[in-house]
Amino acid sequence: MAEKFLNYVAGEWVAPATGEYIENRNPARTSDLIGLFPDTGAAELDAAVASAQRGFERWSRTPAPERGLVLKAAGDLLTRHKEDLARTATREMGKVLDETRGDVQEAIDTAYYAAVEGRRLFGRTAPSELRSKWAMSFRRPIGVFGIITPFNFPVAVPSWKIFPALLCGNSIIYKPSEDVPHSAHRFVEILLEAGLPPECVQLLHGRGETIGRAIVEHPGIPGLSFTGSTETGSRIGEVAGRLHKRLSLEMGGKNAQIVMSDADLDLALEGVLWGAFGTTGQRCTATSRLLVQNEVHDEFVEKLCYEARSLRLGDGQEAGVDVGPLIHEAAREKCERYIAIAREEGATVATGGGRPAESGLADGWFFEPTVLAGVEREHRAAREEIFGPVLSVIRFDTIDEAFDINNEVPYGLSSSIYTRDVTASFRAVEELDNGITYVNAPTIGAEAHLPFGGVKNTGNGHREGGWEVYEFYTETKVAYVDYSGTLQRAQIDVDW
């Protein structure tokens, strides 16, 4: 009998009022049923919001350095449980253990960074234009935040959102992806063990179209942070704009690695293999386009295909596995559709392109690491997010052409250039229209203490991580103290 997990509402673990549950299965071995998780209904949200509002009233009055100590304790617990959390994440989302260990480590880093920021929620003082008057600004929390997260980083992405939100004095209602609910359950257990007041966090499992939508539309939730598809993010943006909610969107990507003819080709090869096929291509920062200068194109693609074919597919919990499964059947079918589209548009499958033949992989959602050659810049495979281990290779002649190809897609998250030319490197940093650019490194690898996010259809201008995220989770208040003892009027001419 599969274990039934619960929501966390108003300081208690509770069953869903609907009585309905969602199966959580291992994508590498779908016969492995991890557990049953609540399929929460929209009507259940009111109780969570009321509890979160009570939690906010208490937590927002707790000094920020004291809030930081709770997050420090959460970081300590994450460190202690790093291995079992990594194994939990690998079992339910598929990527290899080395990657889920990194996933948890990123949450640890984020916790410790947030803890320190509890002593750094700085405001500003400024001179008043009037005599005997003091002027200053300070940061204060906003209220209840709805946190909606994806499957691909089951521990890291929630930490990017939840730790800063809590550090700033807000309370949260957390709706994880229904594909990785067990990691979310463990995450909330750790927060509570670290000493977070119970009503500061609510955990609601379920589907995006029901409980997720209800969180977005609820008038008692003034702030939202969402990571997921551009299509869903756009719909959330429409609702949030109408309801005047604070909103951070982190959405799609179509990231390019540019390989110049003077590059260290071995280094560039390592970079694209990791960038394109790490996490089975299921990263918003994944390398989904490879732009190779004509002089080295054929040589580089030949080496790439050889190395891609040598990658071992399998259960990410097993030693020696390089690439795990896709998250579910729909993700694999999407990859197959784009392979068919690419062929129709004139591209060729240089390697991969389908389900692996090994019988031992038949019970999982596996897809071969795929290289598409002969892709043109206008092809759909070169412009649309696939979110799988499918890499489109595009030739170019000049660096200006490469920059144009990078910039013309609707997304703008990450980019990368491999070159020994310092001028080309700095031009890339300035001219590539992305929120992140790497020089001689792949398109993945963001660090917890720097801002993370993109431009165009990738986001709405806010950043996760680093110092900027603390501005999103707070609002500025300005205070004036007039100790002159007389009425002074700003912007009114005075005869001194």
Structure in a nutshell:
With 496 residues, the protein is α/β, with parallel strands linked by helices.
- Report strand %: 15-25%
The CATH superfamily of the largest domain bears the name: Aldehyde Dehydrogenase, Chain A, domain 1
Name of the CATH architecture of the largest domain: 3-Layer(aba) Sandwich
Which whole number gives the mean pLDDT? 97
Domains counted in the coordinates: how many? 2
Shape: globular
Description:
The chain has 496 residues and is α/β, with parallel strands linked by helices. The chain has 2 domains: 7-251 and 459-478, Aldehyde Dehydrogenase, Chain A, domain 1 (3-Layer(aba) Sandwich), CATH 3.40.605.10; 255-439, Aldehyde Dehydrogenase, Chain A, domain 2. The protein is built from 14 helices and 21 strands. The strands form 6 sheets. The protein has a 7-stranded mixed β-sheet with strand order 14-15-16-13-12-18-19, with helices on both faces. Strands 9-8-7-10-11 form a 5-stranded parallel β-sheet, sandwiched between helices. Strands 5-6-21 form a 3-stranded antiparallel β-sheet. A hairpin with a 5-residue loop joins strand 5 and strand 6 (133-141). Helix 2 packs antiparallel against helix 4 (97-117), helix 3 (82-93) runs antiparallel to helix 6 (181-193) and helix 4 runs parallel beside helix 5. The chain is globular and about 80 Å long. The mean pLDDT is 97.
